[in-house]
Design a protein that fits this description.
Elements lengths: L2 H11 L1 H9 L4 E5 L4 E4 L1 H7 L3 H4 L10 H16 L3 E9 L5 E12 L5 E10 L1 H15 L9 H18 L3 E8 L2 H8 L1 H17 L6 E4 L4 E7 L3 H16 L3 E2 L5 E2 L3 E7 L7 H17 L5 E2 L1
Parallel strand pairs: 11-12
Antiparallel strand pairs: 1-2, 1-5, 3-4, 4-5, 6-8, 6-11, 7-8, 9-10
Length: 301
């Protein structure tokens, strides 16, 4: 059946449906088994940036960039080979080349002999939904004040890295960093100044970390640094570098006032014979307590 007859079939059997389709505000199109457009509604014409009549008879390659057309055609081919319904999401570009995210709902239709004659598709713009999902994901994973991972995400990363270290039988260490006398900063200069200190400390740790390391805000003034492929001996060297960086910070809290900070640190290493991230955290926490008790601004393990 050629496309003219097929289009006529749609008109004859679904005239009311076609009127409804053309009035719908989201893009709808239909193609024959050669992937050529039989028609579309006004919303789809606007989406593509062509007149409706200009779209008929063309393929995706004549309307979209080659890479995008390849994807659309491959999915159309799969649907025609496996008739039924197809739903998928994909990044796309809007009429103004702005980045969008769309969901496509497609289904095959048949001719009077019952053979697959083409497909009809609808495009739903889900950009706002995706943006909201990304914002919620960011809020769930990152600390709102410092911009680094929060405790929840840090714990998740630690579990994953412990699993990998056990599987590969490779070392894994961590450092708990606690800013010394932080309560005094809040009491003396106010919580706003305390927030500035936390931000600067977090940024310093993040910027100077190795690419493989994970840093998160673990508590009020505590940070957790996870060190893959690192023994306790190497962790001490890395922690000392962080300690010195924090000690050298000059935090400007007002136009005329600045302050310096120090940090105490405790180190724990995963025992591959008795792998348990909780034991490693307890080891680091105990070492941190020792560092605080011994005078602060030092590293213990």
């Amino acid at each position: 059946m050629d496309k003219t007859k097929l289009h006529q079939l749609l008109k004859d059997n679904h005239q009311g449906l076609l009127l409804v389709i053309d009035a719908l505000p989201f893009p709808i199109y239909y193609k024959d088994i050669e992937y050529k457009y039989l028609g579309c509604n006004e919303a789809y014409a606007e989406y593509v940036g062509r007149d409706q009549e200009d779209i008929i008879g063309k393929t995706a390659y004549e309307l979209f960039e080659h890479e995008v057309a390849e994807i659309f055609t491959a999915l159309d081919r799969k649907l025609l080979q496996e008739p039924g319904i197809q739903i998928y999401e994909t990044p796309a570009h809007g009429p103004n080349q702005d980045a969008r995210y769309i969901k496509l709902h497609k289904a095959t239709f048949r001719d009077e002999q019952g053979a697959v004659a083409g497909l009809i598709g609808a495009i739903i713009d889900i950009t706002e939904q995706k943006n909201l999902e990304q914002k919620l994901q960011h809020l769930a994973s990152y600390d709102d004040l410092t911009g680094i991972y929060n405790r929840r995400e840090g714990t998740k990363q630690l579990i994953n890295l412990c699993t990998e270290a056990i599987r590969k039988q490779r070392p894994l260490s961590l450092v708990i960093v606690d800013l010394d006398n932080f309560k005094g900063i809040n009491d003396t200069y106010g919580h706003g100044s305390g927030d500035v200190v936390l931000k600067m400390a977090a940024q310093t740790l993040e910027k100077k970390s190795r690419a493989c390391d994970i840093i998160c805000r673990y508590g009020g003034e505590e940070f957790l640094i996870i060190l893959p492929e690192t023994t306790t001996t190497d962790a001490v060297v890395i922690a000392e570098r962080y300690r010195l960086l924090l000690e050298q910070l000059n935090v400007q809290i007002t136009s005329s006032d600045s302050l310096t900070i120090t940090a105490s640190m405790g180190i724990g290493e995963l025992d591959l014979n008795f792998p348990d991230q909780e034991l490693m955290l307890k080891q680091a926490d105990k070492a941190l307590y020792k560092a605080k008790k011994n005078g602060k601004n030092q590293i213990c393990y």
